[in-house]
């Protein structure tokens, strides 16, 4: 089968950083599904894993943690899906990725593809949707039934992949008042079109901007961009007994002491935790992807596709990595078909 892989960790400008190869078609066992890949999306985790370092892989490593496709075969213990089913999922970072014609994935972290979306639009959703859903509803404890309607959330990084679905979940499902950050006119428009009530610039003074729009403090903060830079602002604007969640690893220690007087809580969200550790509740990702598919088919949520970069091949995948590393992508970058 065709695949895009690496053996050395090189700058994306190097044509050997991601290469077209042939691999053996895998065989599903246990609860695995063998999925024929129709479309993939690219995320910052792909660029972080591929970042230059001295390691050399003895066998080609396939990246890619966003996919939509058709079940080709199912392992003997699989019960949720059968051959022919259309699915979407993010996979596990501890296994080979989905940048290949066929891919093995545990069915417990797979959802039925939204019927109203094609594979390209569906592939844009899984990783960021799981991340935003878990951050908002599981880490922050916001009600997905709208019981927290009218409370406020600041979403730092509103136009990125996670922010794009996070705005929708916060506004249209949780019924929160959403303040999203964006730094350019086009990204500000994107965030507003997705449902943000207010836009602030994360390169400027966030507390001062919130004060100017009458939201000096907020109930929740979601940090989807640069924890080191934005944690102090989050600590300044969070309400007493509020909750902050970040998905971006820090390079310097975060001053959690800033939260003590407010009895505020800080949470991490890493959507690979369940699959990485094989937690007993892995199937929750299947459930949430299925619920999101229902919300999409009902017209409540929409795809976060930003650009379709063409066929699934090394040259196009390198371009997707380059665009993400430039830090100016809006929405999700997707590749379709081999």
Automatic annotation (TrEMBL):
<dbReference type="InterPro" id="IPR014182">
    <property type="entry name" value="ADH_Zn_typ-1"/>
</dbReference>
<keyword id="KW-0479">Metal-binding</keyword>
<keyword id="KW-0560">Oxidoreductase</keyword>
<keyword id="KW-0521">NADP</keyword>
<keyword id="KW-0862">Zinc</keyword>
<keyword id="KW-0963">Cytoplasm</keyword>
<dbReference type="Pfam" id="PF13602">
    <property type="entry name" value="ADH_zinc_N_2"/>
</dbReference>
<dbReference type="GO" id="GO:0016491">
    <property type="term" value="F:oxidoreductase activity"/>
</dbReference>
<dbReference type="GO" id="GO:0005737">
    <property type="term" value="C:cytoplasm"/>
</dbReference>
<dbReference type="InterPro" id="IPR051603">
    <property type="entry name" value="Zinc-ADH_QOR/CCCR"/>
</dbReference>
<dbReference type="InterPro" id="IPR036291">
    <property type="entry name" value="NAD(P)-bd_dom_sf"/>
</dbReference>
<feature type="domain" description="Enoyl reductase (ER)">
    <location>
        <begin position="13"/>
        <end position="335"/>
    </location>
</feature>
<dbReference type="InterPro" id="IPR011032">
    <property type="entry name" value="GroES-like_sf"/>
</dbReference>
<dbReference type="GO" id="GO:0003723">
    <property type="term" value="F:RNA binding"/>
</dbReference>
<comment type="similarity">
    <text>Belongs to the zinc-containing alcohol dehydrogenase family. Quinone oxidoreductase subfamily.</text>
</comment>
<protein>
    <recommendedName>
        <fullName>Zinc-type alcohol dehydrogenase-like protein</fullName>
    </recommendedName>
</protein>
<dbReference type="GO" id="GO:0008270">
    <property type="term" value="F:zinc ion binding"/>
</dbReference>
<dbReference type="InterPro" id="IPR013154">
    <property type="entry name" value="ADH-like_N"/>
</dbReference>
<dbReference type="Pfam" id="PF08240">
    <property type="entry name" value="ADH_N"/>
</dbReference>
<comment type="subunit">
    <text>Homotetramer.</text>
</comment>
<dbReference type="InterPro" id="IPR002364">
    <property type="entry name" value="Quin_OxRdtase/zeta-crystal_CS"/>
</dbReference>
<dbReference type="InterPro" id="IPR020843">
    <property type="entry name" value="ER"/>
</dbReference>
<keyword id="KW-0694">RNA-binding</keyword>
């Amino acid at each position: 089968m065709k695949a895009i892989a690496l053996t050395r960790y090189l700058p994306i400008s190097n044509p050997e950083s991601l290469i077209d190869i042939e691999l053996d078609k895998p065989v599903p066992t246990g609860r695995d599904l063998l999925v024929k890949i129709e479309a993939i999306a690219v995320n910052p985790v792909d660029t972080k894993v591929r970042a230059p370092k001295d390691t050399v892989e003895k066998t080609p490593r396939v990246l890619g943690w966003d996919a939509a496709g058709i079940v080709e075969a199912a392992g003997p213990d699989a019960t949720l899906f059968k051959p022919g089913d259309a699915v979407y999922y993010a996979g596990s970072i501890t296994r080979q990725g989905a940048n290949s014609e066929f891919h093995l994935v545990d069915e417990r972290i797979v959802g039925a593809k939204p019927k109203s979306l094609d594979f390209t639009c569906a592939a844009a959703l899984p990783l960021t949707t799981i991340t935003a859903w878990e951050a908002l509803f599981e880490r922050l404890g916001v009600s997905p039934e709208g019981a927290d309607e009218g409370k406020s959330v600041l979403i730092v990084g509103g136009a990125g992949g996670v922010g794009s679905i996070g705005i929708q979940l916060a506004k249209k499902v949780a019924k929160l008042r959403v303040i999203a950050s964006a730094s350019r006119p086009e990204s500000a428009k994107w965030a507003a079109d997705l449902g943000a009530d207010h836009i602030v610039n994360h390169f400027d003074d966030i507390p001062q901007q919130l004060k100017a729009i009458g939201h000096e403090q907020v109930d929740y903060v979601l940090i989807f961009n640069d924890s080191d830079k934005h944690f102090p602002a989050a600590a300044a604007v969070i309400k007493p007994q509020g909750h902050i969640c970040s998905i971006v690893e820090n390079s310097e220690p975060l001053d959690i002491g800033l939260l003590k007087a407010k009895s505020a809580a800080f949470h991490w969200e890493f959507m690979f935790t369940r699959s990485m550790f094989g937690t007993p509740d892995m199937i929750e990702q299947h459930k949430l992807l299925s619920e999101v598919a229902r919300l999409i088919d009902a017209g409540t949520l929409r795809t976060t596709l930003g650009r379709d970069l063409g066929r699934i091949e090394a040259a196009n995948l390198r371009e997707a990595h380059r665009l993400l590393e430039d830090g100016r992508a809006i929405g999700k970058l997707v590749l379709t078909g081999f």
